[in-house]
Amino acid sequence: MHPYVAYGVMPLFALANAGVRLSGPAGAFVDPVSLGVLLGLVVGKQIGVFLASFTMFRLGLSALPAGTRLIHFYGVSCLAGIGFTMSIFMAALAFAGQPVFETEAKVAILAASTVAGLLGYTILRLTPPSR
Question: Are the C-beta atoms of residues 44 and 82 closer than 8 Å to each other?
């Protein structure tokens, strides 16, 4: 049952509880709210997590675990953009009383989580462990 729940039921549950209708023009992703959310979750989280890890390694405050390379940490930093539960909560607070902006932000959060997840998965899947 695990694959059905993990890859089917849970994503559908999350989407249903997001309270977003997935209809409308595709051009909505170039609106300032949507673009800010997409860039923040996909690009901003990557840069922040990766640079923090890289800095710790270079300063000698931490060491790479056995069998890993920096590209593995970059893949994990891409996965940091997935956390949509808190992002949707924050969008609801930030855009309370502005349903158009709130919907734009929620759709962008779901899209950014998908992009971040696929990007991180692809990098980690295609990168072999170091020897």
Answer: no
Q: CB neighbours of 31 closer than 8 A, spacing ≥ 6? A: 104
Q: Are 110 and 36 in contact (CB under 8 A)?
A: no
What gap in Å lies between CA 56 and CA 63, rounded to an integer? 8
Q: Which residues 6+ apart lie within 8 Å of 92 measured at CB?
A: 102
Question: Who wins on pLDDT, 125 or 10?
Answer: 125
pLDDT band at 26 (very low <50, low <70, confident <90, very high): low
CA atoms within 13 A on the CB side of 74: 9
Return the sign of the alpha-carbon dihedral for residues 77, 43, 92, 111.
negative
Statement: the pTM of the whole predicted model exceeds 0.70: yes
What is the rounded distance in angstroms from the CA atom of residue 85 to the CA atom of residue 59?
A: 33
Given a contact cutoff of 8 angstroms between Cβ atoms, the answer to whether 79 and 48 are in contact is: no
